[in-house]
Amino acid sequence: MPYAAITGWGDGMPPAVLSNEDLSTFLDTSDEWITTRTGMKERRIAHVSAIEMATLASSRALACAGLDPSEVDLIIYGGCSNDEIVPNSASGVQVALGATRAAAMDINTACTSFIYGLSTATAMVQNGTIRNAVVIGVELISRYMDWSNRNVAVLFGDGAAAVVVQATDQPSGVLGSVLGCDAEARQVLRVRGMGCTYAGVGITLGDTAWDFDGQAIFKRAVKGMSEACARVMAQAGVTADDIDLVIPHQANLRIIEAVAKYAGVPMDRVIVTVHKYGNMSAATVPVSLVEALKEGRIRPGSKILMPGFGGGLTFGALLVQWGERVTPLGESGMAFPANTRAALEMVNAIRAGQDPHGRSAAGLAAPQFAESRTGAAAPA
Ligand code: ACO
């Protein structure tokens, strides 16, 4: 049975930064509260679509792997931010990349979507169905955030990253995988206003409301991730001493610290990005992976633990062994279109029920095809 090595990686991070001070201009909150309770200082607000973020990340990951889009067998779009439900978002990435041979599927397990997606792609490589896959973690939560609810509005951000996995005989890639769902408590995190339940209610842009029991999620997140870590380490036959790096889901610094403590791994071996990007749901683990590689914190053969937790309440942990290469083979020429609006300006537009790109109502009514916007932007 072959292994599924991670041979490419890339991010698609929008440049506009929303600070805690920005949030304090329209919410009864403060930098002090947000920092001490969550560890967050900044998050990003996208001026592009989720498919555009996913496409840029994928293009960079493919260039990094030295793989042509025509060689991709499968694209997995992991996340709960979709431009539309039908057609799916992976198909939008497929056409924008020109990956014409690739199967294209969306996986929505909320914050664990990348972890579920990487586990799925690995299994499909191992059973011989595919040889090359792109796995994406992406979120555009700013568009359906309830910006009047300080309990959740301060916590989330937009972003994307992707990896390429390829069949190999060398032991590398995902060596252990534990996935699960604490569904008894699925009601503690719910976004109302999107989906068939609400059909006919007249829900429009910005009319979502979040059910969010932060303390219940906190406790179940620590328990779910810690148990998944213990199980995946046992499955792979490794102990905490063997773990070179933990790349956890970034929902809250205190959750990360608690999970690292339960796993028995000191914080100097844990990647933390929550202060810069907030909780990007499915994007947090791959974005943190890309940052770790850029910072030279992953070495050939590194053993990496990736725990995650999200709506559902899904949880999981992967044990990844890195391959030989820790530097990119090439660079993508793709880039986002230029951004002309500050993050706070975009958020205020969303709060006012307007389009954050500043498009007219007539422009909004017309279908927006992300692939054509991406095409117009590339190459840089
Ligand atoms: N600014 C100021 N005060 C606030 C804010 C805010 N943004 N939000 C809440 N408060 C207030 C509350 O109203 C409450 O006030 P009260 O005591 O007068 O009632 C007080 O702060 C304390 O609230 P708690 O809920 O006790 O605060 P806690 O320490 O639990 O922190 C937090 C809240 C940060 C949400 C924490 O529970 C948490 O991180 N939970 C997990 C979140 C999470 O994991 N989310 C993602 C899960 S899945 C996914 O990633 C999609």
Number of strands: 13
What is the CATH architecture descriptor?
Answer: 3-Layer(aba) Sandwich
Q: Rg from C-alpha positions?
A: 19 Å
Number of helices: 13
CATH topology: the name is Peroxisomal Thiolase, Chain A, domain 1
Question: Quick one: CATH superfamily?
Answer: Thiolase/Chalcone synthase
In terms of quaternary structure, the protein is: single chain
Class by helix and strand content?
alpha/beta
List cofactors, ions and other ligands: acetyl coenzyme *A
- Domain count: the total is 1
According to CATH, what is the class?
Alpha Beta
| Range of strand content | 15-25%
Which sequence of SSEs, written as H and E, runs from N to C?
EEHHEHEHEHEHEEEEHEHHHEEHHH
Dominant shape: globular
Percentage of residues in helical conformation = 25-40%
| Average of pLDDT | 92
Model regions low in confidence, pLDDT < 50 over at least 5 residues: 361-380
Sheet with the most strands? Answer: 5 strands, mixed
List keywords for this structure.
globular; 380 residues; Peroxisomal Thiolase, Chain A, domain 1; 13 strands; binds acetyl coenzyme *A; 13 helices; 4-stranded mixed sheet; 5-stranded mixed sheet; alpha/beta
Sequence-ordered SSE layout with sheet pairings:
Blueprint: E1 3-11, E2 17-19, H1 20-24, H2 31-38, E3 42-44, H3 50-65, E4 74-78, H4 89-97, E5 103-107, H5 113-126, E6 132-139, H6 150-153, E7 159-168, E8 173-181, E9 189-192, E10 209-212, H7 214-236, E11 245-246, H8 253-263, H9 274-277, H10 284-294, E12 303-310, E13 314-321, H11 343-351, H12 361-365, H13 370-377
Helix pairs in contact: 3-4, 3-13, 4-13, 7-8
